[in-house]
Amino acid sequence: MKGFLASMYIGLQIESNWTKKWVWLLYLAAYPIGSFLTVIILYGVFGQKTGLLPYALYGTIFYYSLSMVFFDMAFSVHDDREHYQTLKYIFLSSTSYRTYLCGRAATRYLIALAGIFINLCWLVPVLRLPFHPNWGYLIAGATLGYLVAAGLGLAVASVFLLTIKLDVDVVDALFGGIFVLSGALFPPTAFPAVFAKIAEFVPLSPFIELMRRAISGKILTSFLSDMSTFQLLGRVALSAAVLFALGSLLVSFGSRQAQRKGYIDVTTAF
Amino acid sequence: MHTAIQVENLTRVFNRRGTAPFYALRGVSFDVSYGEIFGLLGPNGAGKTTTIKIMSTLLLPTSGRVTVAGFDVEKDYTHVRPLISLISGGETSGYGILTVEEQLWMFSQFYGMETPVARARIEEYLKVVSMWDSRRQQMNRLSTGMRQKVNLVRGLVTDPKVLFLDEPTLGVDVEASVIIRSIVRDWVREKPERSVILTTHYMAEADELCSRVAIINHGLILANAAPAQLKQDLDSRAHYEITVDRLDGKQLDLITAFMEEGNDFVLGVDKVTNSPMLVAHLMHESDIARLITALAGQGATLEYMRKLEPTLEDAFLKMVGRRFEDEEEVSPIS
């Protein structure tokens, strides 16, 4: 637990210690805007008639919260190995590398959720978004969502432990694909039937739909509409358990292989 | 248990695509006792860092076995890690945005230390390295020497049983090097259940600190003994440099005839005083008295005399066939 909290602390310091506190708070509020500004223009200005603005906006901001977790985990490997040169010292400590990654990403997640909360304070009244939060589902969903994202992040981190060169494009393509298929931006029912079916099984889909319903109090489209909110929560819990266990196994395997190959403290000119 | 580290027939091979396998270690064996500072000396690419990486669980061996405090580094690495610390020189590790104090506290937490204990140790060691006043300074504002001192404190705060020092004074100024060496020496003396494994480029550092050194080259241990023993094994003769007021070749011939067979003499000139300077290689230490008598018999007055001691560098040169400075960096991975 001490290791987890210390990792959260370093995550917070890396995020916030580069400027004055008030500038950082401003940044905290402004940063998520980039993730949903396109959605507002797309559905709020040009596509008003579609009525998809609440669906796409809520979907995008909750996808954004999870993306902070898996991107942070993935890039921490290279950051710590190449930039800070601390990876080997973390590996040699009593704290497991999984715990360290989870701690750092937890801070990122909380920061992202704080940014979302700040922005919802003006987005809901200005855009007249449906807002009837069920706090129980929101808190449970947010907690399980973290585990889903952490599972994915650990899986990518395990790959990065075994690669010397950082390939940002691969990560972007992977998570970009998940973004489209998870129904964050538009209902996958717009896809051909096969892809729509695949979208239902993308691990992030039930989480995003759960959070949409939990915050708006409505079923906004037909995507996953045959499932009750409680069933969605069950799906998210299952995804969280499976993905987190898988991610943990993969990062253990990746660590061992990196130890075998001598990649834990390798530095390059990249 | 008396043995802190046991290395048995350790081999490490790096397989690189398109090139022949690189044998970093070829059956290395040695052991290190508690209370000992053990040095690993060798040119770059000799296998020192590879050995330290395996002992500290950063790298797996291809074959052979290493135990630290009785635990196998390959199988029981989760037991080994809380007992060890690694400090590498010549790098700029650390989170630049953290203050010195934050950085050290954070690593203490990774070892599960109670915060009050950690803070007390951080204060103690920062004062020892004269950095207590810099505790609130950000890491990225520190000089190389200061960063290395913080690195050393990070390694000591967790009170490890075995401390791995990989070139700890590399790129560090003379003052910081002296402080680091002094701390390491005192740290081992403080508790008998501690031990240090040191790799260094600086022969004088190994000579000063280590109770035993292993000379390693091309992945093989060439010698493993106390520095004094290694120097003694180099040459059993006694060597002296004697400056006199006057001495010529004919007088030297007479002196050579007077001395026992096997003693060698070279006559030169002292570059500072321009007086004749005799370098004597004597079979026995006691022959010096006979030599001084012989010089006095030739009417020469002693101006200056000193005994020439072989250095660890000489021992290294004899075994490896070249000096440290002649080497180029070899990385088996990149």
TrEMBL record, chain A:
One function term, GO molecular function aspect: ABC-type transporter activity
Domain of life, source organism: Bacteria
UniProt keyword list: Membrane, Transmembrane, Transmembrane helix
Membrane topology per record: Multi-pass membrane protein
Membrane spanning residue stretches: 22-46, 52-71, 109-129, 135-162, 174-195, 232-253
Main location: membrane
Domain ABC-2 type transporter transmembrane, chain residue ranges per copy: 48-248
Pfam families with a match to the protein in the record: ABC2_membrane_3
Subcellular location: Membrane
GO cellular component: ATP-binding cassette (ABC) transporter complex
Name of the protein in question: ABC transporter permease
From TrEMBL, chain B:
Entry protein name: ABC transporter ATP-binding protein
Record PANTHER family: ABC TRANSPORTER ATP-BINDING PROTEIN (PTHR42711), ABC TRANSPORTER ATP-BINDING PROTEIN NATA (PTHR42711:SF5)
GO molecular function, one term: ATP hydrolysis activity
Annotated signal peptide: none
Superkingdom per UniProt: Bacteria
Record-linked PROSITE patterns: ABC_TRANSPORTER_2
Family designation: Belongs to the ABC transporter superfamily.
Domain (ABC transporter) ranges: 5-243
SUPFAM superfamilies per UniProt: P-loop containing nucleoside triphosphate hydrolases
InterPro entries: AAA+_ATPase, ABC_transporter-like_ATP-bd, ABC_transporter_ATP-binding, P-loop_NTPase
Keyword annotations of the record: ATP-binding, Nodulation, Nucleotide-binding, Transport
